[in-house]
Please model this.
Amino acid sequence: MSQGEPTLFRSTPSGIGRTRVSGFTRWRVFWRTLFIQAGFTSEGMQSLGVVFALMPALEKLYPDMAERQRVIERHLEPFNTHPYAGAAIVGAIVHEEARASLGEVDPKTIGDMKTALMGPLAALGDGFYWLSLRPAVGGVAAATVPWLGAWSVLVYLALYNIVHIVSRGSLFLLGLRHGAGLINELAKWRVPMWNTRVRRVGTAATAGLAAYLAVKLGSELQHGSSPWFAFAGVMLAFLCVLGAERVNKYVMFYVVAALCCVASALF
Amino acid sequence: MLDEVVVIGVLSGLLALERRAFLQAMISRPLPAGACVGLILGDVETGVAIGMCFELLFLGSVSLGGSHPDHETIATVVAAAAAGTMTSLAGGDLTRAIWAWCMLVSVPTARIGAWIEAGLDIRARKYLGRAQAAASAQENRRVARQNLRAMWPHFVLFGILGACGVGIGLLSSAAFLNMPAVLIRGLGWAFPAMVVVSASLAVAVSKTPGRGWLALGGTIAGASLGWLGAFA
Model:
């Protein structure tokens, strides 16, 4: 291997990490991780996406077609994780495949690493992005609609994607740098602590919006009893919160509409 | 009108891809998606109003472990397209009633969208089979292409479904305008009630520690602001 070839990262235990994966190839791999769910199948799940993302790196690491074929077949095994966290695992795979191509690690351990990482990272990603960040940002953006109108969409996309893009890129670099050791580095991010904080913001915002709209829209019904409509709106909100776990949300949605039509006929 | 149908169909297909296949930057969420449809139809207010309501209604819908939650994007596109079409024909005082009507009509498409997605995931097994065959034949570029090939059925099917929203608006306009005035007034009252229900459900599903106190604080603040704005 010549002295001038670009290196990956030298953080392997043996201190040796020269590879043939350039910065441009790493960028191509990261870009392709954005399509990790494009070919989602019920059988292999994200396996097609993983192979698609890894291909530029595998072409550099395994110039021999027969060897590359074996590696690709290995990565067509079922795989499923959170799409953003998938970038971290793909980065870790590139790190470990670089070592495997040099004979530093047994290729079978890469499959074990994937299996070991995909569950915990899925839980981490689902817990933070889907169950905390998205509802919080959605709630805050929806709460700004009465004042900002359509500009609340920009609030939504900006708030969410600042965190999304930065963390997705950071996760990829984390995997690229640390390989199988990325989970220890990820623990330092203390994601569960942020889950609770972010969810609290969303809860307060949506509760405020429900109450605000109940009062404001109730008062705009152009009826003599507007304050009572406003009060009824707040009570409706309270009942919905209580009944949410007992009644299907669509049933509530349609029943409320029907009750409003009945009320219109009566008053 | 035809060019709007085509543009909404293309937008719907792209949003379906953004939701699952590429990027997941929340452009396909109801609030941004509704605003986009409203922009195309020249009625951003309608798109944002419907997007806001569906954003709150579907706030707790999550895809965990490959599951298929209700397709909030297609429900929003259909509702916003139908409402935007109807408000251009008969808006004014009927606007909120139109919003409520279109949301009630389009909510079932969320479940239909989930079924379509589940069916397409099963169908996509053939792309995995082709990838495995290509890998055995050392056609490595062909292996990678199967990932992108699996996207087109989503684009086409959800594009068609989204474009149908305009048709739903046109077809239901006559029925809507022939409704008794009392019913139309009731639907006008229903829109704010449906938004309140959606926001309340979003609070209920948050499962945050201390959500009761947070909700109480938010309610007091929101109700105070609303009261000051409406009655003070």
Residues 108-148 of chain A form the longest helix (41 residues). Residues 162 and 168 of chain A are 10 Å apart (CA to CA). Chain A touches chain B through 100 residues (CB under 8 Å). Residues 1-18 of chain A have pLDDT under 50 and may be disordered.
